Amino acid sequence: MKGKNEQRAGLLYGIGAYGMWGLVPLFWPLLEPAGAVEILAHRMVWSLGVVVIALLALRRWAWVRELAGQPRRLALIAVAAAVISVNWGLYIWSVNNGHVVEASLGYFINPLVTIAMGVLLLGERLRPAQWAAVATGFAAVLVLAIGYGQPPWISLVLAFSFATYGLAKKKVGMGGLESLAAETAVLFLPALGFLLWLGARGESTFGSGAGHAALLATTGLVTAIPLICFGAAAIRVPLSVLGLLQYLAPVFQFGLGVLYFHEEMPPERWAGFGLVWVALALLTWDALRAARRNRSEALRLAALAAGVTPDDMAAPGDTAAPSDGTAAPGDTAAPPDDTAAPGDTAAPSDGTAARRTEAPSG
Q1: Structure confidence by residue, pLDDT tens digits, 211-237
Q2: pTM confidence score
Q3: What is the spatial distance between Cα 78 and Cα 172, in angstroms, rounded to a whole number?
Q4: How many whole angstroms separate alpha carbon 250 and alpha carbon 42?
Q5: What is the DSSP string of 43-86?
């Protein structure tokens, strides 16, 4: 009973995390007339304050001394901080400039971009269904490029920046809260310097009213709370379940773009999105099939270790599903205590282990 309650709570935490990331387009317009760069700078500054408070409450500081003596990991954190700044900034700009649907597409295609990067950069090998998904995703981008009259640059930059972020965070191998603290620490001084420069020029909106200032300060909570919920979910539910939940965020964003912001959806855009959804359905089917095979293989190995033969385990006429020993890229979500988000949408691996899924960045 306790296990079921834990899984139920984890499912609610996961829905809450991805739901908040999916509904965040409703928040960014509230911060106008602040521009995207000013909002981004506030998000960096206030996020550090929130995660420092959380780390103080949890007394998790041992990693700081260890990290300080590892220049390579510090460099990777700097890379992660740079690309997530691009991702955050472009996402905020997109929402506040009528491109919510195109932004949602970026997070839909992120798993496909992550797989492509795994093949090109890490030499991973894909199964036929994964190749079919990548090819379908590429066809979708071509259809959308024809429909837009140009490539969907917002979607592509969001997808590639977040995939690069996931790759960097995989290499760093830090917990979600610690990683966010390190990244925002790298970003803090440039962000604070930019805000002070804006204030000196009289262009800052922070002093335009107490309500507006409070909303800008809330960007730290908007960043941290979904991540905390994601971490609570990741330790309570199977990773395959969390990997499926990652699609809630772009689904919500797409719904808001069409139904709330009333963005146009001509037939060619529907066709492109339809192809993307077909590709994601292929990935999901392949991931679930691989997960079942892996479980069957794990049970077989456990039985052999216990001295039970396969003939003793199987009922007459039953056959065990073969296993290729691999898990599908994009079929799992990395717990924040192990890696980053992220968004976590939907993140790269070595091609033989299950691919981590970052939490969406939101």
Answers
A1: 999 999 999 999 888 888 887 787 787
A2: 0.78
A3: 11
A4: 24
A5: HHHHHHHHHHHHHHHHT--HHHHHHHT-HHHHHHHHHHHHHHHH
